């Protein structure tokens, strides 16, 4: 089994709480990444030559939203499908190819996990617990393993 029923319930209920304000949390998710690894911004072609502040960049906002929603939706589907499903608009193979070409390393995935967990903690502080953290960690780890297996 990919994740337990209890972990699935925690992921689904917390994601349902965050959905309505997903654009805000998505941007915070990426801004946290760039706070920790400022050079990560250079891995995004649409940010390399931009002088626009990151928090105002519409391309970053759109990308962050796509990644955040895909990550959260994939996490909610894990137990049901038994595999990582990243949606109809992309594939794990495509994600792996993009991440490989960008030179994404293990450390980047770890920092992104930290940023995701901190964002969730901020988004739903009244739900935050070690169990919720573990549920999201497990779900994220499955997504990363699926991507890395294709890299």
UniProtKB/TrEMBL annotation:
It catalyses: Fe(III)-heme b-[protein] + nitric oxide + H2O = Fe(II)-heme b-[protein] + nitrite + 2 H(+). InterPro entries: Globin (IPR000971), Globin-like_sf (IPR009050), Globin/Proto (IPR012292), Leghaemoglobin-like (IPR001032), Leghaemoglobin_Fe_BS (IPR019824). This is Globin domain-containing protein. One of its GO terms (cellular component) is nucleus. It comes from the Eukaryota. PROSITE patterns: GLOBIN, PLANT_GLOBIN. It comes from Rhynchospora breviuscula. Keywords: Cytoplasm, Heme, Iron, Metal-binding, Nucleus, Oxidoreductase.
């Amino acid at each position: 089994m990919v994740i337990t029923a209890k972990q699935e319930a925690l992921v689904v209920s917390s994601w349902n709480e965050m959905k309505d304000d997903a654009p805000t949390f998505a941007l915070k998710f990426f801004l946290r990444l760039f706070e920790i690894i400022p050079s990560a911004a250079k891995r995004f072609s649409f940010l390399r030559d931009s002088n626009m502040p990151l928090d105002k960049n519409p391309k970053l906002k759109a990308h962050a939203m796509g990644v955040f929603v895909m990550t959260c939706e994939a996490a909610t589907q894990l137990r049901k499908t038994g595999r990582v499903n990243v949606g109809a608009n992309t594939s794990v193979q495509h994600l792996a190819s993009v991440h490989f070409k960008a030179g994404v390393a293990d450390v980047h995935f770890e920092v992104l996990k930290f940023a995701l967990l901190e964002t969730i903690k901020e988004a739903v502080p009244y739900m935050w617990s070690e169990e919720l953290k573990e549920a999201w960690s497990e779900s994220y780890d499955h997504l990363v393993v699926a991507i890395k297996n294709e890299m």
